Amino acid sequence: MAKLSKRQTKIDAAFEGKKDLSVADAVALVKGAAAAKFDETVEIAMNLGVDTRHADQMVRGVVSLPNGTGKTVRVGVFARGPKAEEAEKAGADVVGAEDLMEAVQAGKIDFDRCIATPDMMPIVGRLGKVLGPRGLMPNPKLGTVTMDVATAVANAKGGEVQFRAEKGGVVHAGIGKVSFDEAKLVENAKAFISAVAKARPTGAKGTYVKKVVLTSTMGRGVTIDLGDATAE
Q1: What is the pLDDT of residues 61-116, one digit of tens each?
Q2: How crowded is residue 214: how many other Cβ atoms within 10 Å of its Cβ?
Q3: Distances in Å between the alpha carbon of 131 and those of 52, 90, 127, 202?
Q4: If you ran DSSP here, which 8-state letter would residue 225 be given?
């Protein structure tokens, strides 16, 4: 068996016997144990009682974290004319129409979030096989198909997080950096948990939120007490 490093031994000791903590205690533990040489992302994962093979049990939504994510988000916008200018002024990184479609088809995807005006959807629709698997396909339910591109760009840049249940009913996201103040991470975690809880689909039966785990990029995970996690 490989010998554990001093760093790993220290982390294991910090997490020993710790489980079902309050959100605040979980944040303090994860933040305090982070020891990588870079600013790790604090990540949250929620195991939900849903079967995503059924349309009425799909969980999907968006939440604006009160303190942002600490991540620089590149935004691409499909728009023409005044709306294209509006997107550029709002800070979009890439703006275009057919030219942007051709760039994406060629494999050049220089954005982490994609927004489109409604009239651009026939063009964007051709990119479904490229953008869909990457979770980049604009969706009116998520506010990424809109005429108000300035607000959409600002939201994407300002800490808006999209979530979607994956196979097995797991939803996960980054909710900040370990360099954030504990209070800000707690606020972000509770905002995310609340948004997922409110997104309960009509087809979900029985226990909806089964497990919530908080971790950092290179750290161990710790479970959060479900009562505290879902308390308003």
Answers
A1: 999 999 999 988 999 999 999 999 999 999 999 999 999 999 999 999 999 999 99
A2: 25
A3: 20, 23, 6, 27
A4: -
Residues 6+ apart with CB under 8 A from 217: 36, 40, 41, 43
The tokens 């079967």 sit on which residue? 51
Specify burial of residue 51 (Cβ count, 10 A radius: 0-12, 13-18, 19+).
Answer: middle
Structural contact between residues 59 and 200, judged by C-beta atoms closer than 8 angstroms: yes
75-158 belongs to which homologous superfamily? Ribosomal protein L1/L10, domain II (3.40.50.790)
Please give the CATH superfamily to which domain 16-69+160-230 belongs. Answer: Ribosomal protein L1/L10, rRNA-binding domain (3.30.190.20)
> Hey, is 229 helix, strand or coil?
helix
Strand partners, 46: 171, 212
